[in-house]
Design brief:
heterodimer; A: about 300 residues; alpha+beta; Glutamine Phosphoribosylpyrophosphate, subunit 1, domain 1; Alpha-Beta Plaits; 2 domains; 6-stranded antiparallel β-sheet; 8 helices; B: about 290 residues; alpha/beta; 11-stranded mixed β-sheet; 11 strands; globular
């Protein structure tokens, strides 16, 4: 089933971390397996925020050796950052296996990320000037608490509560997905993609990387491929209606935009609220009401509908 | 069927045989086919266990902080105490509120509801001063539901009777599998509305999405705006005087009458002849629907 949500404040910052936590907690019943956030703070053109995981949560119960392995992987990550000329300005560890770095780097980030991800069990969850992508097992309150998201200030965010269907319950299969190598682009999805393997092979032939077997990751890769070919976010969303087979409603966020697309059958829900200064959307109205308790006007987008909003 | 031989069944007329086979031939006025009402009761109107409520006895529930179950239990307790008009405040998009009410009641929601709002009802008059999510009025058998704002998809799915009214626009698959009753939409409706419709009437004052009336068996759809495309088996038919009279009455009743009247409405009916279905006797049609 899964729950998806997005919100974007026009022309101002807000506590998007706390707001998205409340929204996703209200969608907990749609997906109890994992929760993910892509939150966008004030852009910092000089530095990158890099979110990386060096193990799965379930790995932590696999004996004493895992702690040493994690230390070794972190040391290797930092060695490779240095190799590519990246200077670590800040380092935080929300959990033993998930780290946040602020780095100064003016080289080829794609090359650096590919090199770092060659380390066993290491995945860069996101890289960007404003994007912070956090995902882990547990509900929104648990994940937001562990990663200190409740007071995160930013302009927009997307989020996901996952009910695992076709792939594992782990962090690599949790949403959002980063549209590697496009800094600051993230995707959440509700639905099933039926031409996943055909499209995946096509994307892999073009050189795109897949980190999981979750069909939703395809949407992130597909978006990245379109952006690489010069398409706008709206173009990419619109072409996905015919290119992607299956049932889907998905959201894409960039450094300053939030977009949505709904499949030709309109089989997956989304409720939209729009005002002059805030746009909020979620799989269920009750989630929007968690941050807007007053009476508001909302509506369901129709089949094949594509929308893009600017921060 | 116990104790009945084939010869005995053959001797019976259609109604007798249907009853002997465990089916009922009760008129399809929106009442459940599963409950045997007392023949002697005036109008055969109420369920045997339905509380005797007084419409002039009015009270309120503040749903803020309550669960769906708590609101449902509170509604039933108030009905048992004879309250016939109940106002629910602060529903804030909660799911499954007002479901399964099988007696007369004036129920007013001051705010928006989530999924499965007021489904499986048989009798109450419901007013929702807000919006509803997916599957509002699903399987309703009689009564009225009037929604002031928009509604989500599968609005009135498998409705069997009563009037389901949305003053705003609704999502996709409106009236899917509807088997009776009336659905009125003030605005637009999405794709695949009236899919597998089997009986009843649907009125859309605005535009309709693609594949309208796809695979419909029977029933009638009226659309005031543009139709993106008709589904398989759906065809247009000339609007008759009785159609116009019915549309005028219904739309006036719910204060939804378009300024330009009803002459511009397009009427859609089932175009395909189904051998099994179209050769059924009227009584048999009642039984299977």
């Amino acid at each position: 089933m899964c729950g998806i949500a997005g919100l974007i404040h026009r022309g101002k910052s807000s506590n998007v971390g706390g707001e998205m936590t409340a929204i996703l907690q209200a969608l907990k019943h749609r997906g109890p397996d994992s929760t993910g956030f892509a939150v966008y703070g004030p852009p910092n053109p000089g530095d990158y925020v890099m979110r990386v995981k060096v193990a799965e949560q379930e790995d932590m119960a696999k004996g004493h050796g895992i702690h040493d392995q994690i230390s070794e992987r972190i040391a290797e990550v930092e060695k490779r950052l240095e190799y590519h000329g990246a200077k670590v300005k800040e380092k935080e560890a929300a959990t033993e296996y998930a780290l946040r770095y602020i780095i100064a780097h003016d080289g080829d980030t794609e090359k650096m990320v590919r090199h770092i991800e060659e380390i066993d069990s290491v995945e860069i969850l996101s890289m960007g000037n404003g994007l912070e992508l956090i995902k882990d097992l547990g509900d929104a309150a648990v994940v937001a608490g562990a990663y200190g998201l409740e007071t995160f200030q930013g302009t927009h965010a997307i989020g996901h509560t996952r009910m695992a269907t076709e792939s594992d319950v782990d962090i690599r299969s949790a949403h959002p997905y980063w549209a590697f190598p496009y800094n600051d682009v993230s995707v959440v999805h509700n639905g099933q993609i039926t031409n996943y393997w055909i499209m995946r092979r096509e994307m892999e032939r073009k050189g795109h990387r897949f980190m999981s077997n979750c069909d939703s990751e395809l949407l992130a890769v597909y978006t990245a491929d379109n952006l690489a070919n010069g398409a706008s976010l709206e173009d990419s969303l619109r072409s996905s209606i015919t290119d992607i087979d299956g049932v889907f409603t998905y959201l894409v966020a960039t450094k300053d935009q939030l977009g949505m697309a709904k499949d030709t059958m309109a089989a997956k829900p989304l409720v939209l609220y729009e005002s002059d200064d805030l746009i909020a959307m979620a799989s269920e109205e009750v989630a929007i009401r968690s941050i807007l308790p007053q009476e508001i006007d909302t509506y369901d987008p129709y089949d094949e509908e594509v929308r893009v909003w600017q921060a | 069927m116990a104790g009945m031989s084939d010869a005995q069944l053959k001797e019976m007329n259609q109604d007798e045989r249907a009853q002997a086979l465990g089916m009922t031939t009760e008129q399809l006025t929106g009442r459940s086919l599963l409950i045997e009402f007392n023949e002697a009761e005036e109008e055969r109107f109420a369920y045997p266990w339905a509380p005797d409520v007084d419409f002039n006895k009015r009270t309120e529930i503040d749903a803020d902080g309550m669960t769906t179950t708590e609101v449902g239990n509170k509604l039933r307790a108030l009905m048992a105490d004879g309250y016939g008009t109940i106002v629910v405040k602060n529903p804030r998009g909660m799911h499954s509120l007002g479901v399964g009410i099988l007696s007369r009641l004036n129920l007013i929601f001051e705010g928006s509801l989530g999924y499965f709002a007021v489904g499986l009802i048989d009798g109450p008059n419901v007013r929702i001063n807000g919006r509803v999510g997916w599957s509002c009025g699903e399987n309703m058998m009689s009564g009225t539901i009037v929604i002031a704002k928009n509604a989500g998809s599968t609005f009135g799915a498998a409705i069997r009777g009563g009037d389901l009214v949305c003053k705003g626009s609704v999502g996709s698959r409106t009236g899917i599998d509807m088997k009776g009753g009336t659905i009125l939409v003030g605005g637009d409706t999405g794709a695949l509305s009236g899919f597998m419709m089997q009986r009843g009437r649907m009125v859309v004052c605005g535009n309709a999405g693609k594949n309208l009336g796809d695979s419909m068996y029977d029933g009638t759809i009226y659309v005031g705006g543009e139709i993106r495309s008709l589904g398989v088996d759906a065809v247009t038919e000339k609007l008759s005087d009785s159609d116009k009279a019915w549309l005028t009455r219904k739309l006036t009743q719910y204060e939804m009458m378009p300024e330009k009247g009803v002459d511009h409405f397009t009427k859609i009916v089932a175009g395909k002849q189904l051998w099994n279905y179209d050769n059924l006797e009227p009584t048999e049609k009642k039984l299977i629907l």
